[in-house]
Every structure is written in structure tokens, then in C-alpha cells.
């Protein structure tokens, strides 16, 4: 009776709701087109029609009000291209060299990733010294090395001296040693501690520390000289970050039951010295993202030195600049490119807008360089393009969330280079540079550059 009732009920439902049965049919190919798809990407991807493609005339018209205002001063260079095709959509003084400020870090990032690879890690190690009871802390040029344990939420997680000291103490106790002499080795780098044209105020103002292959927390300290996380240092940097790191390491050894006898001394580790232990930095791809997002000068200078070491150049400011330039030339980058440091702090650096756009294009088309793009600040959301993080405020316009760009500024210099999605889905590369801005107009000039990128994001420009 139950089966009969179920069959009758089923037949009744079928007769009452015939349209619902379509939902129970297996998938099949329709005999005709049922609906058309609206275009979702720009003409650069071959989806929209030619009428929707950004043109040189359209881009010029869109940018004219900003570029004719005079806010950027008398020395301005601009280049806008279609990133997919390379077509130039706007150019003004694009091949002229301008002071790049921190957009110089794009050159350092591309060269470092090309030579070292995105998975490379930098090593800080402890080796045996000249005596049986002496050890040497050897700097490997890891600019992310921290003193103590960083907050668990920090990304990427750096190597730490507290970890290295714990491993060292364990190795020494295994050998029956609980008292050692400690030296520290900074011989990996050569040449002056300051870059060409750097004033001493760069250190006292917290822009950068002395460049050395051994330092912790990028040389940032409290007023009492204690290494500290960047967010709470107040911009103070150590006068001797290598010695400070060695002293901190000695303190951690003591806390782990190993006494350091006498004063810590700067030495050169013996050739072929046995390694006791080591710690490694995060992968280079993560370090590059860190550098670009917060425009970190210490990281940039250390990565430029690593390029020099890897290519057989002296690990100095001059050697690093020459090495980065050589790598970029081998990649096919052409145009005005005169480097004196890796961070862009030197007012002597010169880069053309066309070179910056080439670097953006390389990063967009080369898997090995992908972290250059992913590390760029996002308008209104991250790094130096979020509110209050730099003189470059968020646009608040169409570029919000869709413009990625490297910022750069000195007292009379502003530059911005990156990419912007237009409203029809095209991807544009751009660079805008100005190096004769009145000091009291720097903020206005920086804001106008962000507004320019936002206009590109918001325009059809056809």
C-alpha cells in the first residue's frame, strides 16, 4: 500500500509541476545559443572592440588637466604604455634621466631576483675562532635579522639572534664548553658606510642605518640603545649596528648558560673555520616584497650588495651600483640609468621614466620577478600608498585598490611607477617623475601623482 501511495503521489506531482522536471535532467548541449556573454576584459586581451581601446589621444586628454597645473614643477617626465602590447599611450621627457628616489628600488629588486632567485636565503652563522675557546659571529648581509622573537603575526618571520644564540649554546655545551671569547666579522662588505651624497642626517632621522652585513632590527633602537621593532623605535638608529648586534648576541649566550669572557672584538673569521650553527633569512621573494611595500632602505642596500657579490663585483656602494646596472642591461633594459646606491637615497642617481616602465613590464612578464609586482603598495590599502604611511596619500578615486605603484621622494623629488587597471580591464604601466619640486609643495606633488594613476584607472581613454 505504501509503494502504491508513493507512485500515485509522484504521478500527481509530475502532472502538476511539469516545468520542475527540467531541473532533474542530466546536462546536455543546447541545439542553439541561449544567451550571449558580455565582455569582461579590455581590448588588450582581445575581448572588447577597438572602440574600447585606450588611445594616445584619449590618455593625453585625460591627463592634460593634471600635467598642465604646474604642481609638479618645471622638471617632469611621464610615460604610459599598454602593458600587454607595449604601445606608448603618453610620453613626455620619457627618456630623460630624473632623480628616482625610492623608485630606484625597482632596479635593485629586479636585479636581485634575477641573479639570486626568489627562493634564495641569506645566512648568519657562528664559526670557530683562532683559539679552541673562541667563536665568531659572521654577518651574511641579512637585512631582516631580528634580535628577539618578533610578533607571531609578523610576515615574513625573520631569523633571530636569540635563536642563533640558543643553537650556539647547545653546540658549545655538547663540546663541554661554557665560556668563550666572542668576535664578530663584517668583512663581507667593503668601502664606506654611507652612500654618495648621503648626509649624516639620514641616520639621525631614521631613514637608514650604517650599511653593514651584520645588524639586527635594521639598526633601530630605543633611546636607551636597545634593539627594537621598527614600529616602536621612534626612528632612532644605532651608530654602530654591528657591534650592537654582537653585544646582544653575547647577552643571549649568557642567558643560555655560556659566559662571554672580555669585550666583544671585531675580527675576521679564520679561512676554512668550522661552522657551529647558522640561521637563514626568509626567501628573497618575501624580502623583496617587504622592501617595496614599506620602501625599506636598509633592505635595498643589502640586496644590492648581494647582487655585487653574486656577480663578482666589490661589495661596496660603487660595486653594487655597477652590478645592478650590468644585470639590467643583460636583461635588455635600455635608456638613462646612472646608479650610485641601491635604495635611491643618493641625489646623484638618475633613471628615465622609460627605464622604470621597462622594469614594471619585465616583472609583469617574468615569473622569476613576480614578487616585484606583488610587493608594490596598493592605492589606499598597503605600504606607502595607505593613509599616513608617506607623503603619497590614497587617491580616494577609481585607483583605489587597483593601482599598484612604487613611491619615491626626497626633499624636492617625487616619483611614482607601477600599473593601473582601466575601467574596461586594460592593464597600463606608468611612470611619473619630478625632481625640481619646491620643498613646501612636495605633499601636493605626491598627491597629484597618485591622482594621475587614479585617472588612468578610471578612464576609458578612447
Describe this structure in words.
The chain has 462 residues and is of the alpha+beta class. The protein has two domains: 238 residues, DD-peptidase/beta-lactamase superfamily (Beta-lactamase, 3-Layer(aba) Sandwich), CATH 3.40.710.10; 160 residues, 3-Layer(bba) Sandwich (D-tyrosyl-trna(Tyr) Deacylase, Chain: A). 32% of the residues lie in helices and 15% in strands. It is built from twelve helices and 13 strands. The strands form three sheets. Strands 3, 4, 5, 6, 7 and 8 form a six-stranded mixed beta sheet that branches. It has a five-stranded antiparallel beta sheet with strand order 2-1-13-12-11, sandwiched between helices. Strand 11 and strand 12 form a beta hairpin. Helix 3 runs parallel beside helix 10, helix 4 crosses helix 6 and helix 8 packs across helix 9. It is globular. About 6% of the residues have low confidence.
Amino acid at each position: 500500500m505504501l509503494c502504491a501511495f508513493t507512485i500515485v503521489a509522484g504521478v500527481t506531482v509530475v502532472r502538476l509541476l511539469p516545468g520542475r522536471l527540467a531541473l532533474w535532467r542530466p546536462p546536455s548541449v543546447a541545439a542553439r545559443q541561449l544567451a550571449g556573454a558580455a565582455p569582461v576584459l579590455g581590448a588588450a586581451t582581445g575581448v572588447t572592440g577597438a572602440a574600447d581601446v585606450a588611445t594616445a589621444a584619449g590618455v593625453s586628454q585625460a591627463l592634460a588637466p593634471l600635467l598642465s597645473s604646474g604642481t609638479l614643477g618645471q622638471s617632469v617626465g611621464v610615460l604610459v604604455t599598454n602593458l600587454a602590447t607595449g604601445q606608448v599611450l603618453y610620453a613626455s621627457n620619457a627618456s630623460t634621466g630624473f632623480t628616482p628616489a625610492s623608485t630606484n628600488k625597482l632596479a635593485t629588486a629586479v636585479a636581485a631576483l634575477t641573479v639570486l632567485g626568489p627562493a634564495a636565503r641569506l645566512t648568519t652563522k657562528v664559526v670557530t675562532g683562532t683559539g679552541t675557546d673562541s667563536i665568531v659571529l659572521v654577518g651574511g648581509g641579512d637585512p631582516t635579522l631580528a634580535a628577539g622573537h618578533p610578533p607571531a603575526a609578523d610576515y615574513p618571520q625573520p631569523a633571530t639572534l636569540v635563536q642563533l644564540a640558543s643553537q650556539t649554546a647547545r653546540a658549545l655545551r655538547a663540546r663541554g664548553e661554557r665560556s668563550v671569547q666572542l668576535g664578530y666579522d663584517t668583512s663581507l662588505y667593503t668601502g664606506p658606510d654611507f652612500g654618495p651624497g648621503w648626509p649624516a642626517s639620514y641616520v639621525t632621522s631614521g631613514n637608514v642605518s650604517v650599511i653593514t652585513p651584520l645588524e639586527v632590527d635594521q639598526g633601530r633602537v630605543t633611546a636607551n640603545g636597545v634593539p627594537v621593532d621598527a614600529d616602536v623605535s621612534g626612528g632612532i638608529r644605532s651608530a654602530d649596528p654591528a657591534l650592537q648586534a654582537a653585544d646582544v648576541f653575547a647577552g643571549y649566550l649568557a642567558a643560555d648558560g655560556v659566559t662571554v669572557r672580555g669585550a666583544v672584538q671585531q675580527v675576521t673569521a679564520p679561512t676554512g673555520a668550522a661552522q657551529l650553527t647558522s640561521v637563514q633569512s626568509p626567501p628573497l621573494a618575501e624580502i623583496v616584497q617587504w622592501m617595496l611595500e614599506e620602501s625599506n632602505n636598509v633592505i635595498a642596500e643589502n640586496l644590492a650588495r648581494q647582487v655585487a657579490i653574486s656577480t663578482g663585483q666589490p661589495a661596496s656602494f660603487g660595486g653594487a651600483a655597477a652590478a645592478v646596472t650590468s644585470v639590467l642591461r643583460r636583461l635588455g633594459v635600455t635608456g638613462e640609468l646612472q646608479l650610485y646606491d641601491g635604495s635611491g637615497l643618493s641625489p646623484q642617481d638618475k633613471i628615465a621614466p622609460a627605464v622604470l616602465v621597462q622594469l614594471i613590464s619585465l616583472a609583469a612578464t617574468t615569473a622569476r620577478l613576480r614578487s616585484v609586482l606583488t610587493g608594490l603598495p596598493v592605492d589606499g590599502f598597503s605600504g606607502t600608498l595607505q593613509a599616513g604611511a608617506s607623503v603619497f596619500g590614497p587617491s580616494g578615486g577609481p585607483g583605489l585598490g587597483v593601482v599598484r605603484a612604487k613611491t619615491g621622494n626626497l626633499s624636492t623629488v617625487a616619483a611614482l611607477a607601477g600599473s593601473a587597471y582601466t575601467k574596461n580591464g586594460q592593464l597600463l604601466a606608468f611612470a611619473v617623475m619630478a625632481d625640481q619640486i619646491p620643498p613646501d609643495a612636495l605633499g601636493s606633488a605626491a598627491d597629484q601623482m597618485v591622482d594621475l594613476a587614479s585617472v588612468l584607472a578610471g578612464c576609458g581613454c578612447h
